[in-house]
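Data deposition worksheet. Section B asks for the primary sequence of the deposited chain exactly as it was used as input, without tags or linkers unless they were present during the calculation. Section C holds the resulting structure in token form. Section D is free text for depositor observations; keep each observation to a single sentence. Incomplete worksheets are returned to the depositor.
Section A, Depositor: J.P.
Section B:
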Amino acid sequence: MIPDQNNDGISDLLVQNGGNPTVGPGIWEGRIAGVLLIIDPANGQIIAGDTMPDGMESYMSPLAFKQPGEQELSIIFGSGGETFGGSLFMAKLENLKNGDLSSAKVLASEEGHGFIAPPVLADINGDHTLDIIAISHASQAFAIDGKTFRQLWTQKIPDTECSNSFAVADFTGDGVPDFFTFVSKGEWPNNTGLMQILFDGKDGSIAYENSLGCIGFSSPVAYDLNNDGRSEAIISINEFDCAKGYSGDIGEIENKLIAIDFVNGTEYVIDQKKRFKNVFTTPWIGDLDDDGYLDIVHCQYFHSTPYISAFLGLEIKRISTHIKMRSTRIWGGYMGTNGDGIY
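Section C:
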């Protein structure tokens, strides 16, 4: 959601329209340039729009934000996909409203991979400006200074790919926000497993690494579940024969909702169910009924066909916990508690 752009008193939508998913991996013919749009949610009309400055496809959820002290909204958007390169761009919302993204600033670029997971915004260098932390589909993480646009650090996870966004919290306990995500082993569409990675916000070093579950594109959430002053990450994983990849007959499957405690390096199961999976859905955490206690909402998809991508219905679960809601920060859903990517 962005502020009202057509003076009808209703907030508008900033949304990305992607490429052509019917075109196979690595095939250029038939691909369509991504379009960034402002849409009136009251009637569906397009208020403004423009294609990606580089003419590439796009699948990344865009961000809109104001830096402290600024009056004008900035937007961040990305291009490229699993098998074609792209860039992470920044522009003013006014540029898009005028239908012209040609002057957008390139924040980072990748050859052979694009930017699919939306970045997050957090002050990691203490200058009271939101910095930009992103990860490309090539699993190259970038921290970009929000004031100078210079790279603060970069870190690559070799032989993996990433379509999963971050959960943000002070996981390491040093007062600097850190960034936790999943990366997939191998190459799309034959990814063969997952890795969980925690990037230290100070310098991008790997503060935690694990390999739980197989392919999945949900994103993590975070909260201090045990009141020890450090947030845990909550993740949804699928357990099956990872060697079968995304498009093979995977056989038996079990979905698990897991919490990772970074203080002692342990994981524990919150919920699990055989013959169910979660391919894309990020959990939600917060106080759903305003009773002062944490609720967890997550989705599990029924699985009976060989292919993990098949959809045959789902269950939506709410877990009412005994964990008290506290004033500490919470990263409660996809792109954060407020859905804006800002920590």
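Section D:
The mean pLDDT is 94.
The first helix runs from residue 93 to 97.
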